[in-house]
Structure formats: structure tokens, C-alpha cells
Amino acid sequence: MDTRRDVTTRSAAERRRRQLLPVVVLGGGLALAGCSAGAPSTLDPAGSGAGRVANLWWLLFWISMAVFAEVMAVLAWALLVRRRRDVRVRHGQPLRFVTVAGAGIPLVILVTVYAVGLRDLAALGDDPGPRAPTIEVTGHKWWWEVRVQGVDGATANELHIPVGEKVRVRLRTADVLHSFWVPQLMPKTDLIAGEVRETWLHAERAGNYRAQCAEYCGTQHAHMAFRVVAEPRHDYDAWVARLAAPAPAPQTDAQRRGQEAFLQGSCAGCHAIRGTAANGRIGPDLSDVGSRWSIGAGAVPNDGGHLGGWIANSQTVKPGNYMPPQPVDASRLPDLIAYLQSLR
Amino acid sequence: MSTTAAPAPGASREELAALEEHWGERPSLRSWFSTVDHKRIGRRYLVTAGFFFVLAGLSALAMRTQLARPESRLLSPQEYNQLFTMHGTAMIFLFATPMLFGFGNFLVPLMIGSRDMAFPKLNALGYWVFLFSGLFMWASLPFGAAPNAGWFAYVPLTEEQNTPGLHMDVYSLGLLFLGIATAAGSINFIVTALKLRAPGMSLNRVPLFVWAIVATAFMVIFALPALNLDNAMLFLDRRFGTHFFDPGAAGNVLLWQHLFWIFGHPDVYIIVMPALGIVSAVLPAFTRRGVVGYALIVLAIVSIAIISFGVWVHHMFATGLPRLSYSFFSAASTIITIPSGIQIFAWLATMALGRLVLKVPMLFLIGFIVTFVLGGFTGTMFALTAFDQQVTDSYFVVAHFHYVLIGGAVFPMLAGIYYWLPKITGRMYHEGLGRWAFWLVFAGMHVTFFPMHLYGLFGMPRRVYTYRSEPGWDGWNLVSTAGSYLLAIGLLLVLIGVVHAIRRGRPASPDPWEGDSLEWSTDSPPKPYNFPVLPQVHSVHPTWDEASRESMGGGATGDRILADGRRTLLTSELDGRRERAVEMPESSLQPLVLALAMLVFFTAMLVAWYPVAAVAAVAVAVTIAVWLWPPRRPDRELGVRA
Amino acid sequence: MSIRGGVAAATGTEALTTELPVGRSTGWWGMVMFVATEATLFACLLGSYFYLRFQYGGPWPPGGITKPELLVPLVMTAVLLPSSLPMVWAERGIRKGQRWRLRSGLAATLVLGVTFLALQAEEYAGKLREFTMTTNAYGSLFYLITGFHGLHVLVGLTMIGWLLAASLRGGSFGAHRHDRVRNAAIYWHFVDLVWAAILFTVYLSPRL
Ligand code: HEA
Ligand code: HEA
Ligand code: CUA
Ligand SMILES: [Cu+2]
Description:
Chain A has helices at about 5-35, 50-80, 95-125, 235-245, 255-265, 265-270, 305-315, 335-340, and strands at about 135-140, 145-150, 155, 160, 165-175, 180, 185-190, 195-200, 205-210, 225-230, 295, 300. By secondary structure, chain A is α+β, with helices and mostly antiparallel strands. In chain A, α1 (about 5-35) crosses α2, α5 crosses α8 and α7 crosses α8 (about 335-340). The model of chain A is unreliable at about 1-20 (pLDDT under 50). By secondary structure, chain B is mostly helical. Chain B has 20 helices and 2 strands. In chain B, a hairpin with a 6-residue loop joins β1 (about 565-570) and β2 (about 580-585). In chain C, about 75% of the residues lie in helices and about 0% in strands. By secondary structure, chain C is an all-alpha fold. The model of chain C is unreliable at about 1-20 (pLDDT under 50). In chain C, α2 runs parallel beside α7, α4 runs antiparallel to α5 (about 100-130) and α6 packs antiparallel against α7. Chain C is elongated and about 60 Å long. The complex binds heme-A (HEA) (2 copies), dinuclear copper ion and copper (II) ion (CU). One heme-A (HEA) binds next to α3, α4, α14 and α16 of chain B. One heme-A sits at the interface of chains B and A. Chain A: Pfam families: COX2, Cytochrom_C. Chain A: It is a multi-pass membrane protein.
């Protein structure tokens, strides 16, 4: 067998590579960088976890583009040169070319990126240390229960972290599998039934980071979003203090009537409001519902109209969720809304 | 060789008549149901898998239409979830594998110079079971009872308390039912390729496509049991209150994932491997030379088949397993790219040395290389655990697997359809129409799936029936949707092209491409007995090689004509030495009856009519007993002493 | 021109020689592949047993179930493992064309196999009073593994009964035609061997 190296192919490949590379890369790079500003994008990291992975991505991206250019160059050369009717078919077996290009070069690349990948994996697995605050998150179909370790109260679909500090997040699920994913801060960790998982969050800049359940969990997997608020330490401490304190008492008459409606209606069977008789555990704790960024884990914005719509029939808003339509008297609805909105 | 009445130089007129007498089937309703001819069965596989492809593809169009804009209300979440589950399940189980089995069925006996598969009746059974299990699953959709928990059906979501109703029973029973067809088909391929090769076809002369099919079949044999067990346990948990996956009673939810992916990862290579085999089979005709590095490619095929069993945990990189195991599975997943790299560069070298003939099949091969390589790269990226944890379960993964599935499996299939259409139907396709189809499919594919990389990176999770408007999500989703329509139009043109060829196509000569493997040295379409004279093979490219061709013409010997019955040759496993001629079974209704009895069994299990299921199980046993009942022979012939 | 004559001319002889040991038959390969896939299924099943056991962590068997008694399973083993011997003897016999050996060997295996199933039923009767398939995952595993194996024994016995029936009819098997006997024998040996693995996993390993 002829194992001579195919010289023509190689040098032509080199030439092509130079011409093709800028085109491909420019297109890809532009598309990636340009269109995501404001989205919960992994390429716009705000913390050390996601930051590391973003760097890894760019390394992989450039290598891929280079190898892709190599493949395209050979292909283009064949298409341009070997298509003429008069070319002589050559019957060699350039096995050296095949093994070097198909196994040798890839092996070198792969060993390198594997090593880098291991380093990053180790970094992601780093324990935040014993003194880091611990947030307990429990996944429910289809909302997130959030507690701070050592604090009694709970909230939902929103968790706060102090900027610049590593925060441990302990993950459990009440039912099926979910996955905890804050694209701009940290890759995913699944919530496994019957087990406890841990991850951590770390934000370098203050901000609101949109996040979403990433493991398919049934009908409303699409609306199981949450938000991570990274804020200065004192704001974070205030958030923890609010979690520990009773919910604000009603101030106006409307709010008082609303509270009455809440406690007398079916609501209290499923929802808790700290400092009141309502202590249901089926639905989210509503003690600070007025300050949440959304209703229904990202289903709709949190404003009076949507709140009323949700209470009257959340099934039209988030079909299949576990809160049944509530037979609330139309006349009492505004009071109820007023009360809930005052809980912040 | 000619298609007219004049006998081929090898076999005499009387012998041809005798062969026709023994193998021919008079068209009748009965023969339609009882045929065991691998070519008819192969065609049926192709058509049926194509039909399921259209259903699954139309489901995808519905999904894409829903996702075109944020917060669209076209589909309810319940509908969307059933559609994406059926889309994935059907594409993987009812389209990709059966489609490639269809190619295998039609081609393997022809490529190895045999008159049928090793077990023709089992082959017929496989087809009927595939058809019935596919209909069984799709029939649940109009009732709103289709599977709805994704194609990998993670527990505990799929347990009774979280998904009541028949949805997941349809899934588990349907896949168990289908598994019978897949396993039967695989055993058949292995035995056929081991024992029925033409004399002289030693292992180093076996066509690469056949190698790929055999490696695939071995993967099925060792991978499918894991899926079957998983589904059996799921069904028992749901119906009979067992606790395999219940962490509250010593069960474990990750057991499902391990078993599923021990099957699931080899399964993706089960899909791509025969498709890569098609690439190796089609390329020689359009580069005018043999594929570079035959031995290297065989080595690559075999090593992919083996390594593919050691990487399954890369689908579980976010479940929080120990880091040590992640490092191992990450290493294995990076290594598995090497054999693919070898194949890619072997094909590139083949093109770079040969003379390219840019007919439609070749266009699809080029489309394959471009697309598959990109999909492979993203696969390699996932092999790095840290990166995978960031993009898993996002649209980036959806982009990866459509690139490899469509680029790596569908493009080669389309190449194969155009390439073998003349052999299968005896008609040529319309080249211009084919070119249009290629460009539309190619453009449609990339317009649909390239943006998924982007919005996946921008944080969009998969399996969401709707999403809130985010920069970078809505615009690109719309592009994807537009692309999917383009793709659909392209595929429609493929369909039109096939129908047009069958109806109006130019009659094809036996060897329109001057191909290298044995199917090109017999008629288009082949006679029921495939070859008037079974070839004596002298090289890897028998149709290009004078001696092999001669063996079917002037050099024919009576022991390779075997006209005095329905017979074909057995040869030795390794070097293809002639062993003996064997009698092949006649057509029979037993396969259909058996498959129907199984259908009754599975349907009865589904609707919990257990007594009916028991009766059906007995019917299955009786049918098998009758099927295999030994024919009565005189003692002298049997060799009985006592 | 074709070169005629030789083997093909003597059709009668060829029919006679078709099942002489010229290489493996397709049926043999088919059965071996079938057994290979079945063996993988059992491997997955036993693997699942160990996976659940070690993931569980607590005392095994869980939920206060006592460790399995060994007496009955050991007797079952003593019945099932030797049942392969008459099968081998029967197969050797028919290879020489001795029909009586085939018949008596099959009958002996049949008796042993049925005894095994009877013992298993007996064992179940005791176990079911302690725990069932729905008690916990251990119960599910126990009954799935042993029940699935029992089902295989039943299938094997059906094959053997079927062979016996066919051989009693006459005109079925002989020195040149015994593929079906050989294939059923392969299956039976496999069912036997798997039992050894089950004995180890289900009955012995909890004591380790
Ligand atoms: C045809 C099917 C097919 C094929 C061929 C592949 C090929 C590969 N796949 Fe893919 N994969 C799927 C189908 C397939 N995959 C599916 C369906 C899923 C998702 C299931 C689901 O979640 O629903 C999936 C998901 C998936 C994951 C999990 C992602 C996740 O869910 O988080 C991973 C992780 O490692 C992975 C890896 C790989 C790798 C390393 C290859 C490699 O084999 C690729 C090798 C090929 C090349 C690399 C290109 C050619 C090589 C060269 C040109 C040489 C030079 C190369 C380098 C230097 C890198 N795949
Ligand atoms: C071989 C496998 C295969 C193939 C070919 C395809 C093909 C396509 N897939 Fe599929 N897909 C999967 C396997 C496949 N997919 C899998 C395994 C999943 C994961 C499921 C899960 O998460 O559980 C998935 C998931 C998946 C999703 C993600 C869903 C989600 O996560 O929410 C999407 C979304 O866009 C999608 C789109 C498409 C599209 C537009 C096509 C198109 O290519 C389809 C084109 C085909 C047709 C349109 C039909 C043919 C048409 C004709 C012949 C013309 C006649 C018809 C007319 C036009 C009238 N697929
Ligand atoms: Cu929770 Cu998806
Ligand atoms: Cu995989």
C-alpha cells in the first residue's frame, strides 16, 4: 500500500484555510456577541462559575473553527480540482494523511482541551467553605421554594445573594426532577428525588439574573423560572431579616378586608403568610408576594391585573398548574389584590 | 447483463425458469401478506419508516409554529408535550433505526451475494411487529393519550402519581413491542452476514456497509436489553405497584437514567453507523475509486461500537455524580471522536484522489460532511463536563443532535435513496428535481438548526412549550421556524422526486452508476432470486473486478446456480469458504399471525384486560410452536438408528 | 458455459449431507445471538440489584426483611444445574441417531425442570407471607429476578416438552436433523447457568 503523504492536498489545504477562516469566524462571532445583550446568556457571565465556562466555550469555539476550516479546505479543494472530467483518478492509500489528520491532530487537541476541562470541572466543584451562607431551594411542580438556612420564613421563585461572596445552594425536590440553572452565574445542577445536591452561586456584579428550571418536569416546565438578585451585603442582610420577620400587617381598610378574605377563603389551606393563621404548605409562601418579580414562576408580570386574573383562574394563565380556580367574589377581589400587593 | 428475456450467460434458460418457479411470487392478496422476500420487506420498511418520518416531521412543524413567537397560544402545553415526545420517540425508534434496517434488509443479501436473509420468516415478522408497534404508539395521539414525558422518560415524572393516564404505558409497552422487531432484525443481520456471504467473500472483502450493519446489530444485541428492562420496570411500577424507582422504598430514580443511557448512547451510534456505512457505499461510485483505508474504517467501526458502551454518563453530567466518574466518562466521550475523525478524513482523502461526479447522491454526501462535522464538534464540547453542565438541556443540545441526526443520518439516507432508487424501483429519478431538493433541504436544515446553538447559549432551555420574549430568543426562533418550513418543502420535493421516478422515471440499467458492490451486477430491480448465479468473489469491489464478474457469466458453476429448489449457499464465517447449500423457507402467513397475536397481547396489557393478554400469550406460543414444528421425514433421510 | 456435475448433480446425497457437521448452521448462530441478548438482560437485571443495594446504603434487605434462607434455593440449585446433563446426553444420542436416548434424556430434564418450578412455587408461598413485590424495591427486585428466571425455565420446559412431543411422533429428528434439539439445549444450558448467577446475587450476596 502506498502510504506516501499527499503533498498537494496538504499545501492547498493550508492556502484555503487562510481564505476561509475570517469569513466563517466573523459570521459566527458576530452572531454570538451581538444578539444577546440583556438575555440570560451564558456568554454574558456575571460570576466566576459561568465566567469560567464562557472562557472554555471560546477556546472550544476557536479550535472548532480551525478544524472546521481544515475540513472545508480539503473538501473545497476536492470540489474545485477533482471535478474536472480530465483528472486522473489516483489509487493511492494515503493512510498517513488519514491517521495524522483524523487521529493524530485531534488526539493532541483533545488531550489539551480535556485537561483544561478537568481544571474547570474541579473549579466548579469547589466547596464555598463552612462560613458561606446556605440557601435551601426545593423544587415543586412548578415553582421554587426558597429558604435561608437558620431562618424560619420562606419565599418563592426569587433568591438573593450578596455580591462578591460565594453562597452555597442546597437543592432538594418535593416531587419530580428539576434542574437549577442560572445561565449567567452557574451551570446546572439537577434536583434528584430522594437526594440532596449542592451547588454555589457567585456574582461579581450586582443585578437581577433570570434563571429557569432546565430539566423537563411536566406540563408547566416552561413556566418554572426564578430570579437571582445579587445585591450589596447590607441589602442581602435586610432580605434575610424580612424572611425572618412576620409579613407586614394590613394598613388600609381594603387591605384588612383582603386579609380577612384570604384567611377565611380557601387560600390559607394552601398558602402561608407569616404572622397570620395562614400556614398552608401546598403553594408558595405569600408573605412577600407583593415584591416578587412575577406571578406563577415567570408566567406573568406581577401587577394588579395579572394578580386578579391569576386568583380568579390561574389555569388560563398557566394551564395545568396546581392552583385550582378560586371562587372569589368579584366584589372582594380588589381587596384581596390590595392586601397581597401590600405584602412586600 | 440484460433485462430482456435472453438468459444471462451463466444460467441456462431452464435453470432461470426453475429459479423463477421456486422464488417467484404471483401477485395476490395472500402473497402480499405472506411474502418473505427480503427486497419486498426492505421496501416496506423504507416506506413505513418514511411514513412515520412524515408524521414525526409534521409534529415538529407544529412545534416550530408554536415556537415561532413568544407566548404563542396555538398549542396547549399538554398538546405540545405530547408532540415533542412523539416527535423524538418516533424519529429515533420508528424512523431512523427502521429506515436504516430497511436499507439493510434490501441491500445486505444483495451486497453479499445471497438469495435472502438467513431467517426470511423472522424478517417478515420483524416488519409486521415494527408496523404494528408504530401504529400502536401513534394511535394514542388522537386520543390525547400519547407519551408526554420526553423521549427519555425520566422517572419520577413518568411514575403513575405524576403522569396518570395511559401516556407512559403506551411508551413502555410500545417500546417493548418494537424491541422484538429490532432484536429479531439484528440477529438476522448478524447471521446473514456471517453465514450467507458468497463464496470467496472473506471478511476483508465484506462491503463497508455490511460491516456497519453488523456492528450496529451487535450494538443492538447488547444495548437493547437495558432499555427493555427499564421499560419493564417502569410498567411494573406504574401498574403493579413495585418500587424500583421509588426512593421512599429503597428504590432509586437514577437507576432509570443509567439503564436508559446504557442503551441510549449506543443507540445514537446504532443510528449513525449504518448511515456512515451508506456513505462508504455511495462514495466509490462518485469518486471513481475505492474508499481510502478500508481496514482503518473497519477498525473505526468496530471501535466506535465498543467504546459507545462506555460513555453513557455524559447524558447525566448535571445529576451530581462523583467527579471521578465524570472524569472517566468525559475522557471516554472525547476519545470516541477519534474513530469518527478517521472516517471523515478517509472520505475526504477519497474525494481528494478520485474524480468527483456531482450527482444528487454525492451532493448529499457533501452536505453530510459539512453538517456532521459541525454536529460532532458540539458533541466533543459536551464531552467536557464543565461545558456540558452549562448547556445541557438547552437548545444548544437540540442543535447538536439535529446536526448529527439529520447531517449524520438523514443526509446519508437521502443519498442512499437517490443512489439505490434505480436498484429498488428500476427507475431513474429526475436529476434537476433532486438538486432543488438537496439545496432546499441543506439550506432548510442549517437555517432551522444553526440558530438553536445561539439561543441555547443565550439561555433558552429545551422542552418548553412557550417562552417569554428575550433578546436573542424571539428573532432567532422565528428564523428556525422559517427554516423548518423550507426544510419541509425540500423534503416534499424528495417525496415528489421518488413518486415521479416510480411513475415516470426512465428505466434504469442494472448498473447506472458503475458501482462497485454486488447489487450492481444483477438486474434493476433484482429478480426474486437476486442472482441467477451466485457470485464467486475475488475482491472488495466485485463489480469492478473482472474475475468476480466472470464467475457469474461464463465461469458459472452449477453449485452456484442451485436451481433445483429454493436454495442458497452457506459459507464459512471468516474466509467465506463454501460449506453447503441450504433450503430457504417458503412464504407464509405465520409471521403476520404471530405479530397480530403480539399486538393483541400488548393492546390488552395497555387497557388492562389481562385475561385477553393471557390468551394472546398462549396464541403467541402456539404460533411459534407450529412455525418451528419439524417437518416429517423418512428415517433413512434423518439418519435414525434405533 | 457452465461447469456442471460434481456435488450438485447428486441432489439426493446433498439432502442427506445437509446437516452433517459442515460448519455452524444459521440456527446455531441465531440461538447463540439470542442467548447473548438474553444474557445481557440478566446482567442488567443483576446489575440493577447491586446498584439499588449499594445506593440504598442501609441494612440490606431493607425494611426489616430477613436475609433469604438458603436451604430451598440450594436444593433448587441441586435440581436445576444437573438437569443439563440428561440434555447433553440426549443431544449426543440423537447425533448418533439414537432416538431412545433423545426421548429419555428430554423426559429426565423435563422432570427436573418441573421439580425446580414446584420448589420455587413452594419458596414463593413462604416468602409472600413475609413480603411481596410491592413491599419495597428489594421485594420488587426479588420477585422480578426470580420470577423472570422462572419464566425462562417455563419457556425452556415448553421447548423441551415440544421437542419430546415431536420426537415421539417419529420422523422428526435423526443424526442428520437435530438442529432444533441443539438449539433448545443451548437455551436450557443458558437458563441453568443464569440460575447460578442468581443464586449468588439474590441468595448469597446479602450474607457477604
Ligand atoms: C446520530 C447521532 C449522534 C451522534 C453521531 C453523536 C455524536 C457525538 N455525541 Fe451526541 N447526542 C445525540 C446523538 C448523537 N451524538 C443525541 C440524540 C443526543 C441528545 C439526547 C437527548 O438529550 O435528547 C446527544 C447528546 C450528547 C451529549 C449529552 C449532551 C447533554 O445532554 O448534555 C454528549 C456529551 O458528551 C454527546 C457527545 C457526542 C460526541 C462526543 C459525539 C462524537 O461521536 C462526535 C464525533 C465526530 C466528530 C468530532 C466530527 C468528525 C471528526 C473530525 C473532523 C476530527 C477532528 C475533531 C476534533 C479535533 C474534535 N452527545
Ligand atoms: C432522526 C431524528 C430527528 C429528526 C430527523 C428530527 C427532525 C426535526 N426536528 Fe427534532 N428531535 C429529535 C429527533 C429528530 N428531529 C429528538 C430525539 C428530539 C428530542 C425530543 C425530546 O426532547 O424528547 C427532537 C426535538 C426537537 C425539538 C425540540 C423540542 C423541545 O425541546 O421543545 C425541535 C424544535 O424545534 C425539533 C425540530 C425538528 C424539526 C423542525 C425537524 C425537521 O427536520 C423535520 C422535517 C420533516 C418533515 C417536515 C416531514 C417530512 C415532510 C414531507 C415528506 C413533506 C410532506 C409534508 C408537507 C410539508 C405538507 N426537534
Ligand atoms: Cu422544573 Cu422543569
Ligand atoms: Cu451520548
